[in-house]
Amino acid sequence: MAPNALCLLMASVLALAMSACTHVQTDDTPPPARPHKDAVAIVVSSNAPAYLSVAQALAERLDRDYLRYSLSTANAAVIREIIQREEHREVIAIGHAAALAVQAIGPARVIYCQVFYDEDLRQQGFRGVAAIPTFAMQLDHWMHLEPDLKRIGVVVSANSRGLVEELKAAANAYGLDVHHEEVTSDKQALFVYQRLIPDIDGFLFLPDTTVLSASVIRRMMSYGVKHHKSILVYSPMMFELGGSILITAQPADVAEQIMALLDPVQRLTAQRRTLTDAAITVRRARQATLVAVREETLP
Amino acid sequence: MSDRPDPLPRRTLVREILLTQLGYAVIVGVVALACLWFGSNWIARDNMADRAIKWAEDLDYLGAGLYLDGDTERYLRIEGYVSKFPEIQFVRYYDAQGHMFHVEARDNLMPDAALLSVVQQNELAAIAHDEASYQLLRDPESSLVGISTAILSESIRSDGLLDSVTLDDMQTTSEVIGYVELGLNYGDYYDRLIGSVVRASSAVALAFLVLALLGRILLRRALKPLSDIEGPLRRLAEGDTNFQVDSSPHREIAAITDGLNMAVTRIRERDAHLTHLANNDDLTGLPTRHYFMELVARELHDLGDKTGAVLFVDLDQFKYVNDTLGHSAGDVILKQAAERIRRPVRSRDTVSRFGGDEFAVLLSGATRDEAMEISDRLMESMSEMPLVFGTHSFNLNCCVGIAIIDGQNFTPSELLAQADMACQQAKDDGRNRARVYEPDLGAIESIKLDMGWSQKLQYALKHDLFVFHYQPIQSLTTGEITHFEVLLRMRDGDELHLPGAFLPAADRFGLMRDIDRWVISHAIANLAWFRRRDNEIRFTINLSGDSFTEGDLVEFITTQLEEHEVPANAIVLEITEHVAIGSVNDATAQINELIAIGCEFAIDDFGAGYSSLNYLKKLPMQYIKIDGTFIQKLTKSSTDQVIVQAIAQIAKVTGKKTVAEFVEDAATLDLLREYGIDYAQGNLIGVPDTRIDRMSGYPSKPADLNSVESNPD
To answer: pLDDT tens digit string along A166-194?
Structure first.
């Protein structure tokens, strides 16, 4: 971090501490002595590693001052108020909650990242960075690891229709057959999933949280493992439950794409930038996870 | 009272222990079965609840298909699932608004059960997030159970997959999207459960039965040593002491068997002692008449083709010894005589004393010649040297009657009668003689007649066939009838026998004592009846010497007097001189005791025997009945007149009253008055009669009605 940015952050933290909004805390910078119109506001949904790593990568790349806010220490209204008072013109929202928290802030440009389902944000005109690499990239890696992959399945809610269309398009290029089931609840997701599994070679676990619950995720994972299906996931915790391939965004890549959106020229090229790199984790001994997975019997 | 032993009690130790064991087993069994029933029921209910929850979960899961338009098999899955479990009667699905939109019923029978109410749905929604999110409803009148639960849908917060480290950290939201309701019928399940419990109970009961039977066998084996004692105890109860119980290896039983053996030994010793006392004469130690007869019977039984002999020995002049030197001298002489009789007989022979100076000898297996030889030696033994008492010595002889036992033609009593008759014949021949009984027709008839009397007497005693006749005795001073002599008669069909016909046989067959007791009890009873009308009436009752032999005469008479409330001075007991002078054991002592309580005594037939005028001074008697032979010819015989006068004078001097019997005419009566005789008895005064007529108009009663005690009026 540049010395001027560090001083700016410390001044900002000190100013916030002296102001009436005593609940607002930045993570490690002093309050600014005056509004930082040119400083970038970085808002993280929580202190989860997936967010902090991106925030860190972004901070390393920013050529101007920034202030970082976390919803884990202040609620959305307070953060909005601070951002408005500071008159930030550019806000980076890391995570869906952070994006929602800053969506109503007047003239500031909001760039989001680490959001799986961004339809609503895009409809509001927000720019952002995809949370996952392109399906083409994913399928490329997956096919490389599972050459016999022919039929893949996805179970999602109606919210994910756009994603599914992207997937189908990408799959078509690879000659893969996509079995898509749309459900309205987690129980339906499980129900459909268990009936889908026998007919597919792999399952792409799109993280449609509206139709997923912790218990259903567990049962779906164990059921897939039990049937020796290749499961592609985006979450390390799901990978630990028996996923075959874990694909996650690289924080640096996410930060690069955000930097591109901050650039006045590049900003205009796309509303949502895709990732150009991904972290691929492959399970070598898939059966090893069976030990920890409960046996499921279909009624 | 019956002599039959009491029937054995039905209760046995084995049965009691078995019943206790069985009762305990039944209680344990019932408790076990109850526990089995309630336990299995409880487990079943719990299990059924778990199964119901599982079914609800599965149907909740299967119901997810109902919301999918493209799922063409959604109904088939539910139907297939329901058909797999006969307990599930129906399943109903409700949407989030509570409207039932699908029902799957067994056999397509639409359920009668009401739909979930709004209240129930709200309750289910309220507990939807609880661990126990189900409602179980039981129909108390049937085996129907309903289970319902809310269908929840959960979703993860939008960032959940990225900002959580673990699944459990993820924040989720949930909403009720519907309800599922199951109707379950556990009837079939409970039927099967009850069938299983019944089978298990039967198996348990059978096991108990087998155990009880096994226990019975084991218990019987364990208690067998105790049961084995039952036989010996029963034998002991029946008087058999000729056994010994084997000792048991068990300590408790051994104590019993040892005690039983010791008791048997003691009883055997006591029996032997009592038998010896009963079978042997106190004075000489020789077997008694009763025991002797048993031995003769045994000899007859074991006779085979052998012969034997019964000797009847009667001492000559023994009465003289007794009369002159007294009772104690007689006892000493009898002991010496017994030794003399015992000396010549063989070791296998038996010498018995019958009473007084009569002895009998059983020569076992002896021939006629041997019997004659032993008889001769016996007489020699008796006469070879004098018997000694103090400074006195006596040369006593004896007569022996011999009855030969040859075959089993005669009973022991008949054989003894034969020997007795032979002895009498020997006596008739002179002193120191022996004679073998030679049966002739007359003698046999005589014996048979004797035996007939014996049976008749016993029958008469048993059936009260004796009858009293009363002969009045008049005071010659006042002319008043003061006493009645009780004279015994025996009814035999239409005949009435006088004492002379049956008393000798009674004496020979040892029945005198029993007859005396019959006479005493009935005479006192009748006297009581008469005295209720005339309390001056007094009876004179004849007693034989046998009455004094048992030593309980005083107690018997006292009891009878008290029982009938008759004063002792209302009876006068007549005894013979022989008894009065103490030739009978303990007679004097008993006479004195009876006099002490108020009874009076009379010497009967005084002057007929060895009467000594000296005795008149010593005897405690109040009356002397002069023998009738002196009275019958009194008016014609000057000798009799002198004797009667002498007796009267001596009696007067010694303070005794005199009674003259056989007074037949007035001249005799006048002479008796002249001589100062106090009382007269005879046909002139009054003949013996069953009625009493002490004075004119006196109410009388036939005295042969022996029911007088119970119905005096």
So the answer is: 899 999 999 999 999 999 889 889 989 99
Find the range with the poorest average confidence among B7-11, B92-96, B565-569, B574-578: B7-11
**Selected residue with higher pLDDT from B277 and A261:** A261
Asked if the Cβ–Cβ distance from B159 to A186 is below 8 Å, we say no
pLDDT tens for residues B414-426? 888 889 888 888 8
Q: Which of B61, B153, B160 is closest, CB to CB, to A209?
A: B160
- pLDDT recorded at residue A209: 86
- Residue B566 confidence (pLDDT): 94
Does B611 lie in the same domain as B483?
Answer: yes
Q: From chain A, pick out residues whose CB is under 8 angstroms from the CB of B58.
A: 299
C-alpha to C-alpha distance for B278 and B516, rounded to whole angstroms: 22
CA–CA distance, B335 with B387 (Å, rounded to integer): 10
- Helix, strand or coil, per DSSP, at residue B134: strand
- For residue B690, pLDDT beyond 90: no
Look up the CATH number of the domain holding residue B672.
3.20.20.450
Q: Please name the member of A48, A188, A241 whose beta carbon is closest to the beta carbon of B67.
A: A188
Residue B57, pLDDT above cutoff 90: no
B167·A45 Cβ contact <8 A: no
Residue B602 is predicted with a pLDDT of 92
Cβ <8 Å between A213 and B157: no
Written as one string, the DSSP assignment of B329-381 is: HHHHHHHHHHHHHHTTS-TT-EEEEEETTEEEEEETT--HHHHHHHHHHHHHH
Q: Is residue B204 part of a domain?
A: no
Rounded mean pLDDT of chain B? 82
Mind telling me how many Å the CA of A265 is from chain B's nearest CA? 30
- Domain assignment present for B456: yes
Residues B143 and B36 in one domain: yes
Q: Chain B residues with CB inside 8 Å of A212's CB?
A: 155-156
Residue type, B671: L
Quick check: is B696 in a domain?
A: yes
Categorize the per-residue pLDDT at B48 as very low, low, confident or very high, splitting at 50, 70 and 90.
confident
Instruction: Assess contact for B156 and B131: CB atoms under 8 A.
Output: no
**Is A210 close to B65, i.e. CB distance below 8 A?**
no
Task: Say whether B159 and A97 touch across the interface (CB within 8 A).
Answer: yes
As for the ipTM of the complex, it is 0.76
Residues B492 and B433 grouped into a single domain? no
Cα dihedral angle (A214, A217, A223, A226), rounded to 10 degrees?
Answer: -90
B98 to chain A nearest CA, in Å? 18
- Together in a domain, B267 and B300: no
Interface contact flag, A116 B158, Cβ < 8 Å: yes
Q: Does A213 contact B162 at a Cβ distance shorter than 8 Å?
A: no
Instruction: Show the 3-state SS of B568-587.
Output: HHHEEEEEEHHHHCCCCCCH
- Write out the residue range of the structural domain in which residue B559 sits: 452-705
Total domain count for chain B? 4
Q: Give B475-478 contacts, CB < 8 A, sequence gap 24+.
A: B475/B678, B475/B679, B476/B669, B476/B672, B476/B673, B476/B677, B476/B678, B476/B679, B476/B680, B477/B678
B6 inside domain: no
For A208, name the nearest residue in chain B, comparing CA atoms only.
Answer: B158
User: Could you say which architecture CATH assigns to the domain A146-244+283-292?
Assistant: 3-Layer(aba) Sandwich (3.40)
Q: How confident is the model at residue B135 (pLDDT cuts 50, 70, 90)?
A: confident
The CATH class of the A3-129+251-274 domain is alpha beta
**Mean pLDDT to the nearest integer, B123-139:** 83
Please state the rounded mean pLDDT for residues B490-505. Answer: 84
Contact between chains at A191 and B61 (C-beta distance less than 8 A): yes
Kindly list the residues of chain A whose beta carbon comes within 8 Å of any beta carbon in chain B: 45-46, 48-51, 95-97, 114-117, 131, 183-188, 190-192, 207, 209-218, 234-235, 237-238, 241, 299
